[in-house]
Amino acid sequence: MSWQIDPAHSIIEFSITHMMIAKVRGRFNSFSGNVNLNENEPEKTTVDVDIDVNSIDTRQQQRDDHLRSADFFNVSEFPTIKFVGRKVNVLDKNHATLSGELTIREFTKPVTLNVEFNGISKSPWGATSAGFSASTKINRKDWDLTWNQTLETGGVLVGDEISVHIELELIKQAEPELMELAA
Questions:
Q1: pTM for this one?
Q2: DSSP string, 30-61
């Protein structure tokens, strides 16, 4: 069954160490995707998500512009981050891992997300929605995001480990056979 991401009720956030003393947080404000959620056999679920890198938002325009530059994401050549999830390992009725491939710039690397199922609900307008939380940690250097500056006090300006946190609300799509019958 196909489910689409509801961008008004979903978020993709990240954090990374700054100057070895604090965490900087950011988000991507524009993304889309489909989840083929197999409710009877969750291990057969697949996920395809596209993130508009130009929508990066760390609440500081100069930093966001630098992240869009060739030093980091190089959005003029690589405007999209893509995640394709193909392997679900169910841990219990509300927890699983989702393994897939994350493409940033021209590099595709394996990533595993820790996923929590938050439930299914019907809206007052009749739509069926499902909620999920997911998280992972990645090393930015695995995608050749290596720009940095050495600090006068020792250490570096930007940490290597990125914590990713995702909240998704999915909206169940009508089945094609039912849509054809209704037409």
A1: 0.89
A2: -EEEEEE--SS-GGG-EEEEEEEGGGEE-S-H
